[in-house]
Every structure is written in structure tokens, then in C-alpha cells.
Amino acid sequence: MTQQLHAPTADEVEAFRETILAKLTYSIGKDPEHASDHDWFEAVALATRDRMIDQWMDRTRESYRQGKKRVYYLSLEFLIGRLLIDSLSNLGLLETARQALAGINVDFERIRLTEPDAALGNGGLGRLAACFMESMATLGIAAHGYGIRYDHGLFRQAIVDGWQHEQTETWLNFGNPWEFERPEVSYLIGFGGSVMALPAEGPGKEPRHFWHWSEGVRAIAYDTPIVGWRGASVNTLRLWRARAEADFHLERFNAGDHVGAVSEGARAESISRVLYPADSTEAGQELRLRQEYFFVAASLQDLLRRHMDQRGTLLNLPEFASIQLNDTHPAIAVAELMRLLVDVNGIAWNKAWELTVATMSYTNHTLLPEALETWSVGLMERLLPRHMQIIYLINAHHLDALRERGIHNLELLRSVSLIEESNGRRVRMGNLAFLGSHSINGVSALHTGLMRETVFTDLHSLFPNRISNKTNGITFRRWLYQSNPQLTALLVEHLGEELLDDPENMLRQLEPYAEQAQFRARFAAQRLENKQLLARIIQEQLGIEVDPSALFDVHVKRIHEYKRQLLNLLHTVALYQAIRSDPGGNWVPRVKIFAGKAAASYHTAKMIIKLTNDIARTINDDPTVRGLLKVVFLPNYNVSLAERIIPAADLSEQISTAGLEASGTSNMKFALNGALTIGTLDGANVEMSEQIGLEHMFIFGLTAQEVEARKQAGEYNAEATIFGSSRLNEALLSIRDGAFSADDPARYTALIDGLKWQDTFMVCADFEAYWHAQLEVEARWRDPNNWWRSAVLNTARTGWFSSDRTIREYAEDIWKVL
């Protein structure tokens, strides 16, 4: 783990040890002689939390005194991972804690592993939100994160006979020592019911509306302090837990209805039970919408209360509050803020709309149509009737204003409407977020350009100044200092301790060392150490022995067709067949490492996981391969596992279909740690190639423009492509014919035939280019001086991809808080 800049004094170590022992005794109620590892973890966590609190309160008081504008970051996901190392490192207490425990014969490395990995997110979007919270604290921006305190979060992935099985994630089984429950901070959230129009209160006044909701759910706040680097500031992550308005009906219980007496509580608590409940059923869709509105409504009530307490009026809201919507999940905030301003606070409609647009901003994370949320009008009218009225009225004013501008093109008006009429009437949440925000940003230069050209092309033509780009970033504190202490120590030794405070600029000073053979050797040595650690994890979890000196080829991310794990698997099969055909060939030993979760209802993604495991079993058991190729699928990919995989990667697979990945952030994490990227010109790969240099990456395949051109022309013939490549054809046939599924030879027939008849994600189209890019990888690997020179330059040139830079851009250009 990362060392403190200055060794702690004996008095500092002793003071922290006494705090830990006091927490163990008086907060946990355990004798040191009988304490479990988890007891010790909790004691250290509570001792660490104490060190945050003074700073937390001081910074909060200071922001109130100075009248600082606050940022409110609304996200359905916060993939924060384990917090012990993060917090100790940022407070400069890591070595203090280690020595404090060592003095009483407690193994710090062992107890830190007992901390559960909070599964409050699915992937990049949730991890980005966590990085942003840490960066806002580091930069001293007064901010609140708002989300849901999921009881179970995303499912725990188990692999049984190669198939994904979803199990309950139990991160809260032993409580959460980082959080503070705030039972006094609670809000009643309504669902269903009807709306009553009230008479106008005077001449020139607008009619008021009263929402008689039929069901009330209470939102209870839980606060987690998020500390910035060197304790620069501490901000609040406020997560909401759902409770019934009345938890228990004693009369019904005494009448014998024991289940009915608690049914309302169970229905309410289901809202904060699980992240992303399967939405393949109507009940699942309703629960998803209930989750989104629940946390948005609680968060807006909370921030408006805070604003009113300090300012006394909502008419200056945009001057002192900026609300950032992280994707379309919180988009209902546009209608909810209008309801609170108009119905609850009596502000005139036009003024309320002006305030809403000036306060809201929206980050778009996807170009996939299915990921731009829409909700059926029927469901909205039943669950949120007043919001549906408000959305209709927003839409009417919007379309009327366009007609007043002389815009009468019916197709254009249909495109920019908030209501989709063509396939069942649905509310377009992306359009609502766009219309209700003064700023809309993409998350990479390519993605932002494609937003203007595709999903929001017509809205962009009407509001040409709203879309801007804010390329994603990562926090180097987590993804370099904490994840890779070996590399961090090497960098600090050569660049100085100042690197830890200014990696954005100082990493560039590493470039000359890429030309030094001794430094390259040490860079390779720290990688080997990380690979040996990962090899032990693979052995322990899977019973598979891998060679740390082999090329570690890593593809870890959410399992989705557009991320093209299938393309990697086809290369794996083709490589396997080539090795078997020429066992004496000059093959580069390679370990293919996969990890990632498939959505519970995503059948094709689950089949890809099963295929990965079938291929792994076949190859790993084949003695003719002689260990030249190994394939592993590590289950239950999460932040903690990523922290072990990323520093050990030699090759980073970023091979999404061009034009479909908004940005990616794992690509940045791998490059920061010196892995070389094989990838398409998609998402932030484009900007990475500009910063790092194409010669230090392996770029292949169709561009986003070429992909779109093929789709538009309708001329792409996957069948001809397949027959034009004998190695692709043989790989597909072997999978289709059951070479990897002897127990069920037809298992992959539909999957492979789907590529032949509708290669939507250009897997076959890019196969040959990918194969040849992998040959370039092997050629570079055989030339260690060349490989490690590129590896060092990847680390040296990744400084721009810091989340501090990204947040600084948000703060200056959108939030206006710096």
C-alpha cells in the first residue's frame, strides 16, 4: 500500500493505537484477546472516521459562512468499493495505522480484506461517480452526492458449471462503520393517487394543483464522509433508505393477518433493496421507476430545505446550487423540481422553468437507444400522475415555442417531443433531461460529437450551445497510489514526492526514463510482482496455474455485446487452433483473463460468459497446448478485484464497436499502470491515442463513421466476410458444432448463427483486423526493450485523464464554482 510521505512519530502511532483500542472496547464491545478480524477492521474504520469528522464539520461550516455555491450530484450508482485504504491514504494515516496494529500483533493486511466491497454500482458510471466525489473533495468544491443505500446492491456473481448465477450481495450484514444514520432527516415520498386543480388565489395568478398520493414511502438519510487527498476537504455522500410510512399495523396483526400487517413495510423497503432489479416484467419496470423517483424526490426536498434555511428564497436557486444528473436515471428531477417550485412554493410556471433550466445539467453516458430510458405513459400516469401532467405541459410550451419560431416540420417536432408516439406512447427521459438542463455534456470527444449527430441531433440544432464535452477521468489516488504501491514507489523515487500532489503535470517528466534500460527493467519488475500476486489469486479461486512471465491479456468490464467479449473469444479459439496445428511454432505464451457481470435478464451476455468458461475448460485441459495459452474467467468482478487485476495487466482490451462506447474509464486505469491498449477508435480511446501516441497502442478496426456508413448502406454481408477468412470461419464452425460444448453440441448454434445473419456489432467485420493487431502485440512483446518503452510512455502520458481535470472543467464551465 502507498506509504505516507513522512514516517509517523512514535507518539502519533501510540495515539492512534489507543483510539483503535478504545473503539474496540467501547463502540464494539470486544476484548482485544477475543476480537475477530472484522472487529479489528471496524475499530480501525471508526478511529479513521473520527479523524474525518472535525474536518468534515469545519469545511461544512466554512462553506456556509462563505456562502459557497453547492454542487449536488444525483446518481443511481456510487461504486465506492472499500473505503479503509482510501480514507487512511487520503488522511496521511496509512503507515500510522499499520504500525499501530503491528504494535499489538494485528496484521493490517489481513484485517483490511474483511471490509466488504460496497456493490452500489454496476460499472463505469458508478465508479465515475465515486471518482468525482473524491475529486470534488480534493479540489475543495462544496458538494453532496445523492443516491440510494441499497441493502444488497448489485448481485454477487457465482459461476456454477460455467453459468452465471446471481446471489444476494450482503455488504451490510455486519453494518457499515463509515456511515451516520440520520433518522431526523427524512422525507415522505408519494406515489399514485390523483391530482386536484385548485382555484387561482387572485387575479393574474396561476391555478395551483394538489397531488393526493395514495401511497407514502419515507426516505431516511445515511451520510458517508468522503475525504479528499491530504484531507483537503470532506464532502457528504447522502444515500436514502426506503421505509414504510407506518412500519407495522398492530390491529391487523392482532386480527390474525400477520403477513398483511407488515406488507406495506415490505413493499416500501423493496425500493432500496437491490440495485437494478430485472426490468423484463411490468413489476420490475415499476420498481425501477419507483427507485428513480424515490431518490430524486428525497434529494430535491433535502437540497431545497438546505437552500431555504440559508437563503430564505428559491428565486436565487441557480446562484447557489447546481444539480448534475448522472445519466437519465435521475431525469425525473426536471418534473419534480417544477412540481416543488410551482405546486409547493407557488412560483409562477415561467419563472419556475427558468430556475429549473438554470440549475440543472445533464451528463449523457450512452448512444445506445435502449439505454436512453423511456417510460410508458400509462405507468407514469398511474405512478406519478402530477409529473405526467407537468411533462405534458413542458412539452406543450416547448412545441408551441418552436412553432412561434416558424418551425412546423412535423418530423422534427416529433423527434424533439418529450412523448414518443410511434411505438406505444412513452416519455423520453433523455429529451426531458436535455430540455430541462442548461448544459448537456458527453464524456469523450468522439461521444460528444456523435451525440450532436445522432441521439440529440434535432435538439442540438434547436439549442446549439447546450452540448459540451467533458472527457471522463479517474482518481489516481485509488488507481495508482493505492492499487499499485510498487509502481508508485518507483515513480516517487525518480520524480519526487511532488508527483503525488500533481500527477496531471508531473507524470510527463517520466518520459526520458523510457529510454533508460535500467528504469525499464525496474518497471518490468514491479509488473512481474503484481502478476505473481494475481497468479496466486487465480490459483486460489479457480485452481488454475498460470505463468506470471506470460503475456497477461486482460478483458474486464460489464458483459455486453457491444463491448465484444465475443470478438476476443473468437481470437482465442483461432489462436488455440493455430497452436494445435503448429505446436512447434514461435508462440508467445499468453494468459487471457476475463471478468464481468451480465445483467440478470440479458440472455446473450450470459451465453457469452458460459462460452468463455467452456473455452477455458477445453483449452486449459488440452495437453497439446503445453501451457502456451491459458484462459480464466474470474467471478464477481468488483472494485477490489479490479485493484488486483489492473496493475498486473500487460495488454488492455478496449475493443468495443466504434461509436458505441461513450468513454470508458478502465482504459485509462490500465494505461496509467503501464498496460498497452489494443482497441478501436471508440470513446476515450481516441483521446488516449492523441495523448499517448498511436505507436504505443494497437488500434484496429472500423471507425465510428465506417460502422455507421455500413449500417446506412445496408450492404454489409457478414456471410461473405466469414467465408473470406478461413480462420474466422473455422473458429465459428468449431463453436457452433460443439467443440467446446460436448455435453450440449447445439448450445451455441443461435449465438453463432446470429453473427452470420445479423452482425450488428461488427464482430466478424473487425475480426481480421483484430487478428493482425494481435500479431503486432506478439511482435512487440518479443522485443522487451520496445514493449517496456511503450509501457513507460503509457504511464507518463496518461496524466491528462485525471478526474481532477474533469471536475475542474465541470466546475469552471458548467457549475461555475471555481
TrEMBL record:
One Pfam family it belongs to: Phosphorylase
Cofactor section: pyridoxal 5'-phosphate
What are its GO cellular component terms?
Answer: cytoplasm
**GO BP field:** glycogen catabolic process
Name assigned to this protein: Alpha-1,4 glucan phosphorylase
| Residues recorded with modification N6-(pyridoxal phosphate)lysine | K669
UniProt source species? Pseudomonas saudiphocaensis
User: What are the EC numbers?
Assistant: 2.4.1.1
Protein family per UniProt: Belongs to the glycogen phosphorylase family.
